[in-house]
Amino acid sequence: MQDVLIIGGGVIGMMTAWQLAEAGCSVTLLERRRCGEEASWAGGGIVSPLYPWRYSEPVSSLARFAEHEYPQLAARLLEETGIDPEYRQKGLLYLRVDDGDRAFDWARRLGKPLEAVGADLIYAKEPWLAEGIDSGLWMPTLGSIRNPRLCQALRARLMALPGVTLKEGMEVERLCVEGGRVSGVETPRGHLAAGRVVLCGGAWSGQLLGTLGLALPVRPVKGQMMLFLTPPMAGGRQLLERVVLADGRYLIPRGDGRVLIGSTLEEADFDKTPTDEARESLRQSALAMLPALADCAIEHHWAGLRPAAPDGIPFIGELPGIRGLFVNAGHYRNGLVLAPASTRLLVDRLLGRSPLIDPTPYTPHYHPLKAVADPGQTIE
């Protein structure tokens, strides 16, 4: 019997396995595809909620801890694996913000360096933005990470740890519980026994708990994104060097000059098919911010599934009434953002350590499957 069995090889599952292994646990991680190829790969990599002042304290407290952890986490992964997650701390420009007073109240309360800026500063930082921008907000400390590279680095680190067994291409068919305690999982290759199981299945977490006749209120919300190839610019600059956010959509620059545009919010169940309608909508949003992208090739257009829990507050902890079964899911748009904090909180609970963050707001809850109706709503 393994010390801990983890279901799901996204950023949450891999960071959990890494921390447990370094604490001396024997860990088996099961991933139905290849680690890091679902929502963790599909996101943008901004290391903050998009408009952080609009989030509840449970999300904000995790975000503050994680933002502090990311620079050293990325540096350590580069040193130990040779894979650079490309953490960039070049700030974020907010355009057309209609709740600036709330933003500044939040910044003053937390000591964040948020400032109102005019056209001169905006165009000095990003000269190829669309004309006519006369004001915005500037947060110089905000960072971003290249999430596919982060996933590659985490996978490489786990493969080098003797206490970790990766089983990719291994789908979990159902969870097994005996006498009110988890006993393992069933897979197409047979039963895997485990005294402690951690469910990190993202948007699929509710489906897996459904194999016990229980419903965890986590559902998929589809998001589509695109990536542009951009040419070198005068003076050795990139076409875009900082994250820019306007009207709920964002542009994210990569270190090699690529520019990512995201994202849509769609209630489409588990359908991940990219659509022409979303492609055009994303393209128009990108051009409205950075017109020169009209002459740049679209390298890739894709979709992923965010795991949405009520109010965007993830479930983190042991499931009431099922000893040894833990969950870390429901981060909605902030899985990558919150990962270092939410995994630390769960590992603290697993190992009986005093948590650095109050675990109460994240206590998992579920209902008998037949009692839960389809929410049928779009999260704004």
UniProtKB/TrEMBL annotation:
InterPro entries: FAD-dep_OxRdtase, FAD/NAD-bd_sf, Gly_oxidase_ThiO. GO terms for molecular function: glycine oxidase activity. Gene3D superfamilies: D-Amino Acid Oxidase, subunit A, domain 2, FAD/NAD(P)-binding domain. Keywords: Oxidoreductase, Thiamine biosynthesis. Pfam families: DAO. The keyword Glycoprotein does not apply. SUPFAM superfamilies: FAD-linked reductases, C-terminal domain (SSF54373), FAD/NAD(P)-binding domain (SSF51905). Its EC number is 1.4.3.19. It is an enzyme of class 1 (oxidoreductase). Residues 3-349 form the FAD dependent oxidoreductase domain. The keyword Repeat does not apply. Pathway: Cofactor biosynthesis; thiamine diphosphate biosynthesis. This is Glycine oxidase ThiO. The lineage of its organism: Bacteria, Pseudomonadati, Pseudomonadota, Gammaproteobacteria, Oceanospirillales.
